[in-house]
Amino acid sequence: MKSVSTIPKEPGWTVTATFIEWMKTTIIKHWNGKVEVNKWSNVGTAVTLLHELHEHQRQLNIWPRAFKIPYLHEHMNAVEEPVKYLDWKLQLNTLHLLQYPEIHPTDYLVKFFRVINLSSMMAQYDHTQHTHQMMRQFDPVLREPYLYIIKKRLKVTLNDYLILDVTREQPLKDTLDQLWKQERVNLLKPLKVKLGQQEGEVGLDHGGVTYEFFRVILGEAFAPDYGMFTVDPKTQMTWFQPGSLEPLWKFKMLGVLFSLAIYNGVTLPVTFPFAFYKLMLHTRFKFLDDHSSLSYIRDGWPDLAKSFETLLDWKDGDVADVFVRDYAFSYEVFGQRVDIDMAKRDDGTPFDETPLVTNENRGAFVRDYVTHLILHTIRPQLKAFKKGFYTCLNPRSLELFTPKSLKKLVEGDQNISVTELRACATYEDYDAAHPAVRMFWDIVQGYSQQDATHLLEFVTASDRVPVTGYKSLTFNIVRMGNDSEQLPTSSTCFGKLYLPEYKDKEKMRRKLELAIQHAKGFGVV
C-alpha cells in the first residue's frame, strides 16, 4: 500500500502499567466464574480500581488494550449471560462484570451485543410463527369478510421481515415514508431491502443491497444542501447543522435508521467525531483543565482545536490585542453567518456588547465554545436523533460499549489492508496461484487507501471492514471467460468480482480502474 500510517509507540512497563497487570492477575486468580461479583471482594476491588484507572488513562498514558481480560469471556456463558444482563438490577454491594466494557476486548463485546439483538429477533420470529399457527386453526371456522379483517389487522404481526422497498429516484423520501409511524414490533424483525426494483434493477438482499441502501440514503441525508448535517471538508466528519430548519421528526427518523443498521449488524458509511458517541451513550463531558476540552473536538474539527491550542498557550502579550476574538460562538447556515454571545455577567445577564477573549477568560471561552458546538446549539436535533437511535436497541445493551468501541461497531475500520483482504478472498474457476489472480493482487497491492476503498465498495457495497474483521467479509473472485475487452463486473449481493482472464497486467489495471471508478448499483451476470 502507498499510504502508511505512523503507529504511536506504547508507553511500556511503567509503574501504572505494572499495577494494572497485578490487578488483572488478581481477578483471574480469584474469580469464581460468576458474572455477579461482591464489590468488596478481591475481584470486585480490582475491577473497581481498573475502572478508575481507565477513567484517567489519557493522563496516565495507558493504552486501552492494557485493561482487557480475555480470560473472562473464555470462562463465561457468552450466550446466556448477555441476555440475562438486560434484566439485572443494580445492587449496593454487588457489581456485574458486563458493567465494565473497558475490561472486555471489543470483539467479545460485539458478540455479546449481537447475541442480545439476535435473541430479540428470535422472540419476534417465535411470536410471528405462533400467530400463523393460530390463524391456521381459525381458517376452517371463520368466513369472509371476518377472516380478511383479522388478517389485515394482524398484517404487521404476520410479517417475518421488515421490508423496505425504495426507489433510486427518491430513496430518502421513500424510506422515511415507510418508516413513519411503523410499529416498533415490526422494526425488531430482520431487515430486508428492495432498492431500485421498481425501476427494473435486480438484486437479492444477501447483505450487499442493504449496504448499498444505507450508502444511498445517508449520502442524501448528509448532503450539505439538505440542511440537516455539515461535513468537514478536511476530515470528512459529519455533524449536526446548528440552526437547522428541518423538522425534528426527520432527525428522529434518521436515528431510527441508525438503530436499524446497528440492530441488524450493518456497518454504516459514516464518519462521526468521538463526541457523537459520547452523546449517544449519555457520557458526561469532563473538563479537567483548559486543554482537556480540546480532546472532544480534535478528531472532528482539527483546525479549530489547533487554533484554540494556540490561543490557550499564547504567552506574548494579551490575546485580546493579538487575536481580537469576540466571546461568541459562530456558525454558518445556508450561507449566513450567525453569532451567539456566550459571555454572561456574574448574575447571568448578558453584556451590552460582546466582550473580547482575554488571557483571564480564554480557558472559559474554549470550554463554552466546545459545549456550544457539540451540545447547546444542536440540543433539539440531538434529542430527537437519540430518541430514534434507541428505537431498536436496549439501553442496557449499549452499556457494553465505550464511545471508542461503539464508534468501531457503527463505522467499522476504514483502513483497508490488502494483505488481510487477500487472505480472506475465495475463488471460482480460479485459484490463489493462477497467473491472473496473482496479477490482480500485484495491482491491488500498489493501490492507495482510496483506491482500495473503492475496490472493496465495488465488490461488497461497503467501503470499510466490519468491526468483526476480515473474516466477516465475502470477497469472491470469479473467472469470467478468457481475455476480452469486457470490464470486470460485480455482484454486491454476493460479494463477487467477475474478472476476465486478461492477457497482461497493464490491460487488467486499466480495465479495473474504469470499472471501479465508474460503477454504481448492482452488476448481475
Total helical elements: 23
Supply the helix-strand structural class: alpha/beta
Unreliable runs: 1-7, 521-525
| CATH superfamily caption of the largest domain | Hect, E3 ligase catalytic domains
Fraction in beta strands: 5-15%
**CATH uppermost class of the largest domain:** Alpha Beta
Multimeric state: single chain
Which strand order does the major sheet show? 9-10-12-11
Q: Averaging pLDDT over every residue, what do you get?
A: 87
- What is the CATH-assigned architecture of the largest domain? Alpha-Beta Complex
Q: Could you tell me the number of beta strands?
A: 12
Helical amount among residues, as a percent range?
40-55%
Overall geometric form? globular
Q: Major sheet, described briefly?
A: 4 strands, mixed
Using the CA coordinates, give the radius of gyration: 27 Å
Q: Tell me the CATH topology of the largest domain.
A: Hect, E3 ligase catalytic domain fold
| N- to C-terminal distance | 31 Å
- How many domain modules? 4
